[in-house]
Design a protein that fits this description.
The protein is built from 6 helices and 5 strands. The chain has 163 residues and is an alpha/beta fold. A 5-stranded parallel β-sheet has the order 3-2-1-4-5.
């Protein structure tokens, strides 16, 4: 799928007062900068954070607008790198989360563009089902340091995909 489809989605969400009202009603305790785009709820995010432990650096593959990465990094005092396919999402994440310990780059699950053994924590939420899972898992293994932890959530893989 072309990145322009995701760019259109992120532009639409940014302009939608209705989306913001729905998010505020469903998640009244989320910070204003946290714009959820997945089917993952707050208890699931808290479980993912517990599963990651206390990493020093976190990579978020498919970071979208960057809210999950910022939330995870604030909880653990980690530095973070967000990777997303959509230049619109990456630009928005850079503007919204201009903290010194967060960086955002355009990339894919199979080609993040970051160095080998970059992180000791990695998260990817509701992304793998849109990728070629074998190459994405190889990339995850490449960027994760030995002994690091990855938390990957997906609704389902494409038909016929095996990991």
């Amino acid at each position: 799928m072309d990145a322009s489809v995701y760019d259109e989605l992120y532009r639409g969400i940014a302009k939608s007062a209705s989306y913001k009202r729905i998010v505020d009603e469903i998640y009244p305790n989320l910070p204003q900068w946290f714009v959820p785009l997945s089917q993952t709820d707050l208890p699931q995010l808290e479980q993912i954070a517990r599963d990651l432990g206390r990493p020093h650096s976190i990579v978020d593959i498919g970071c979208g607008l960057g809210g999950v990465l910022r939330w995870m990094c604030e909880r653990s005092s980690a530095a973070g790198i967000g990777i997303d396919y959509s230049p619109v999402a990456v630009d928005a994440a850079r503007r919204e989360h201009a903290a010194a310990n967060l960086r955002f780059h355009v990339g894919t699950a199979s080609a993040t563009g970051i160095e080998t053994s970059t992180c000791d924590g990695l998260v990817s939420i509701d992304v793998l089902q849109f990728t070629e899972p074998h190459s994405a898992v190889r990339e995850i293994a490449r960027v994760l340091q030995r002994g690091g932890r990855a938390a990957i959530r997906t609704w389902e893989l494409r038909e016929g995909a095996e990991v």
